[in-house]
Amino acid sequence: MRDLHPGRLQRLQPVQDACVNWRPHAMRLAAQVTHPASRWRPAIEAVPRHTFVPRWWTGHSAASDGSDVWELNDGPADEHLWLDAAYADRLLVTQVGPLHADHASRGDRPTGQPTSSSTLPGLIVQLARPSGKLRRLG
Q1: CB neighbourhood size of 70 (10 A)
Q2: Is residue 95 part of a domain?
Q3: End-to-end distance of the chain based on CA atoms, in angstroms?
Q4: pLDDT tens digit string along 123-132?
Q5: Number of domains comprising the chain
Q6: What's the rounded Cα separation, in Å, for the pair 93 and 71?
Q7: Residue ranges making up the domain that contains 49
Q8: Counting Cβ atoms within 10 Å, is residue 112 exposed (0-12), middle (13-18) or buried (19+)?
Q9: Among candidates 81, 77, 73, which has minimal Cα distance to 57?
Q10: Which of 16, 25, 52, 71 would give a disulfide with 87, using CB separation of 3.0 to 4.6 Å?
Q11: Is residue 2 part of a domain?
């Protein structure tokens, strides 16, 4: 395996579930994006989403040319922010241009467009057919 960012920590697996009380957040998200009788509700309640997005970018229109400047968020450093973000029905930008949040340094401020993000939970539930198969788009 090639080291894309020498000297930087590379996460190859999700963050381990430490003593983070994430279940109430997962239950709130499940209630928000599923019907009470949905078979998807238990799955959404059971997935520790925060472990898959330990770091992400938040965009701000602050560059002199009007493009977005991205600020790094470090979940384990701010548990409240991490859980609120990971269990919201919104996507989290995980990569801007070639720079993935897991490989970024605190001072990195990439500009430009997002190139990768977490999956929007509500969208996945909406795309799921009653048969359990995903609908084709396009």
Answers
A1: 27
A2: yes
A3: 35
A4: 988 887 665 5
A5: 1
A6: 10
A7: 23-126
A8: middle
A9: 73
A10: 25
A11: no
